[in-house]
Write a structure and sequence with these properties.
The chain is of the alpha+beta class and about 300 residues long. Helix content is about 25%, strand content about 35%. Strands 2, 3, 5, 6, 9, 10, 12 and 13 form an 8-stranded antiparallel β-sheet that branches. Strands 1, 4, 7, 8, 11 and 14 form a 6-stranded mixed β-sheet that branches.
Length: about 300
């Protein structure tokens, strides 16, 4: 599959519009001992979105209506969570959309995801675990719906290997970034004490921010910087990070390739170069599968105090 063919598919079907859902108002009961008495105390925090974090979709759009339904997870387009509204929506900032000015996501895209954890004055500053999950959605007659059960597991695996999440990215290089500190197992810990908060009318805001990239080709993900097959700058700046990713690919092939041909030896030295054509075909076929099956991508972020 050529990238041109995939791009055409995205133009025709508006594949993988970038939406992120995040939320969960959370509380935690603790006990303070004072002599022989024990007093229960609640410690609360909220999640909030503002500015460019706010979804550009109209309140009555089909995707907002679906995500606000029970089937869609009861996520609401609100500025912040509260006791009665525990799940809110936030925008993925796509810095390289398929079409300028749109939110269409395609191979080669990259961007960032951010939202705020809000505390009140005097609240304890503790760490938070951010747990992530991908929820791709189909689109039938203009209405979002769940992906067919026969495809959902393969689709989620492939999205995990093609839309990679990182805590860190470095200097801009020819319209892109180098990435490090990859988010593995779909979870990471956010430490407010390592960040400078902003004080706003509703409380003290700590901004959680992480990054995504959908490598345009297998070469961008796996080859050395000086490889003649590499026509875009690589995802990783260091050889150690590249080799770490190759080891992960060996152990999780189903996240990166679809319909691989026979005879590929992942134990061979420099297998990424030796079997480059076959691996690129399998990687591109996986991209095509994502484009065929997913019309929206929801990234669910659940926040819990550590």
């Amino acid at each position: 599959m050529s990238l041109t063919a995939l791009a055409l598919l995205i133009i025709l079907t508006v594949v993988v519009g970038s939406i992120i859902s995040l939320g969960w108002f959370a509380n935690r009961d603790t006990a303070d001992a004072n002599g022989v008495s024990v007093t229960a105390k609640e410690e609360r925090f909220e999640l909030a979105v503002s500015g460019e974090q706010v979804l550009p979709f109209a309140n009555d759009s089909t995707i907002i209506t679906y995500l606000n339904s029970v089937a869609g997870g009861s996520y609401e387009k609100r500025a912040s969570t509260e006791r009665e509204h525990t799940s809110i929506l936030c925008r993925v900032i796509n810095e390289k959309p398929h079409i300028a000015g749109s939110d269409e996501l395609a191979p080669g895209a990259f961007g960032r995801i951010s939202f705020d954890i809000v505390l009140q004055a005097g609240d304890p500053v503790r760490d938070y675990e951010i747990s992530l999950d991908y929820l791709p959605l189909d689109l039938v007659a203009g209405v979002p719906q769940a992906v067919d059960n026969a495809d959902i597991d393969d689709l989620k695996d492939l999205i995990s290997g093609h839309i990679l999440l990182f805590n860190t990215r470095s200097a801009l290089i020819n319209g892109g970034y180098y990435y490090s500190d990859r988010i593995t197992n779909k979870r990471f810990v956010f430490s407010p004490s390592e960040h400078t908060p902003s004080v706003e009318s509703d409380g003290i805001h700590y901004t959680v921010e992480f990054y995504f990239i959908w490598p345009a080709t297998f070469a961008q993900l796996a080859l050395k910087q000086d490889s003649p097959k590499l026509h875009l700058h690589p995802v990783f700046q260091t050889e150690a990070l590249r080799l770490e990713m190759l080891n992960y690919i060996i152990e999780n092939q189903d996240e990166f390739f679809r319909n691989l041909g026979q005879g590929i030896n992942f134990s061979a030295e420099s297998f990424e170069e030796t079997f480059f054509v076959e691996l690129s075909d399998g990687y591109n076929t996986a991209d095509q599968f994502i484009g065929d099956k997913a019309h929206f991508l929801v990234i669910c972020s659940t926040v819990n105090p550590v």
